[in-house]
Amino acid sequence: MIIFVRNVKVMDNNQEQFYLYGMHPVTDAVLQGRKFERILFRKGLEGEQFRTLLEAVTERDIPYQFVPHEKMDRLVKGAHQGVIAYLARIEYVPFEEMVEGALSRKANPIFLVLDGVSDVRNLGAIARSAECAGVDGIVVPAKGSAAINADAVKTSAGALLRIPTARVANLRTALYYFRDSEFQIVAASEKAEDEMYDINFRKATAIVMGSEGKGISEPVLSLCTVGARIPIVGETGSLNVSVAAALVMFEAVRQRNL
């Protein structure tokens, strides 16, 4: 099914993905201010049109990556010209606006920061739990995070369409902003000394969850002000990140409801 919007070709792949392809359509859409999840460029792509597009993409902080042409040929059965752009499925909120808005509504808001969660279904499950727990917003990095696509929205049961989500170029910058705003930054990690029950979640709090394989990165961990460990009595060393996030968030709910 092909749809034309402002002379931009949009392909709907069984309503699972929404993307543009081709040098001119993608360039037009970028210049028109459309929101993108990410843009794929073919490795080795050159030319004046490409350089103009890449400059526009970089200026707007749109995530992009270079991939082999074989992958692009599998994604699009057409003349993609080495450019495929995935449209954003949600409307991202400016980070500072999200934080200040929450602070204006309540004294001690709570946010969730995802450092490198790369599986879309984990991301969706986390968002579902966050919305149920009354979290005030989610922060994700522009690069190195799962795409918020149809699978993520579906897994979240629509929560990603309801909970404010900010995409930032640098998580460390966001954490500095939280610290300046007198938030405690809780690193959820199996290596932490304190159990999550020992943390005071009644304060203004940003909970940091790490990636599925490596956990929280060292640069991000260095800015966290407290660590929280989920007690595990079995032999398996860690929990799935979406389960761990739900446990920590609902410990905060329990404390705040006392």
Describe the structure.
The protein is an alpha/beta fold and 258 residues long. It folds into two domains: 2-87, 60s Ribosomal Protein L30, Chain: A; 95-257, 3-Layer(aba) Sandwich (Alpha/beta knot), CATH 3.40.1280. It is built from nine helices and twelve strands. The protein has helices at 23-31, 48-59, 69-75, 95-105, 120-132, 150-155, 171-180, 218-221, 241-257; strands spanning 2-5, 8-12, 18-21, 36-42, 64-67, 83-87, 110-115, 137-141, 165-168, 184-188, 205-210, 226-228. Strand 4 (36-42), helix 2 (48-59) and strand 5 form a beta-alpha-beta unit. Mean pLDDT is 90; it is low at 1-16.
SSE layout and pairing:
Blueprint: E1 2-5, E2 8-12, E3 18-21, H1 23-31, E4 36-42, H2 48-59, E5 64-67, H3 69-75, E6 83-87, H4 95-105, E7 110-115, H5 120-132, E8 137-141, H6 150-155, E9 165-168, H7 171-180, E10 184-188, E11 205-210, H8 218-221, E12 226-228, H9 241-257
Parallel strand pairs: 4-5, 7-8, 7-11, 8-9, 10-11, 10-12
Antiparallel strand pairs: 1-2, 2-3, 3-6, 4-6
Helix pairs in contact: 1-2, 5-9
Shape: elongated
CATH fold-level assignment of the largest domain: Alpha/beta knot
Element string (H = helix, E = strand): EEEHEHEHEHEHEHEHEEHEH
CATH architecture of the largest domain: 3-Layer(aba) Sandwich
**In what range is the share of β-strand residues?**
15-25%
End-to-end gap = 53 Å
Low-pLDDT windows of residues: 1-16
What proportion of the residues is helical, as a percent range? 25-40%
Rg computed from alpha carbons, rounded to a whole number of angstroms:
20 Å
Q: What would you give as the CATH superfamily of the largest domain?
A: SPOUT methyltransferase, trefoil knot domain
Most strands sheet: 6 strands, mixed
Number of helices: 9
Top CATH class of the largest domain: Alpha Beta
Mean pLDDT: 90
Q: How many strands?
A: 12
Strand order of the biggest β-sheet? 1-2-3-6-4-5
- Number of domain units: 2
Summing up helix and strand content along with how strands pair, one would put the structural category as: alpha/beta
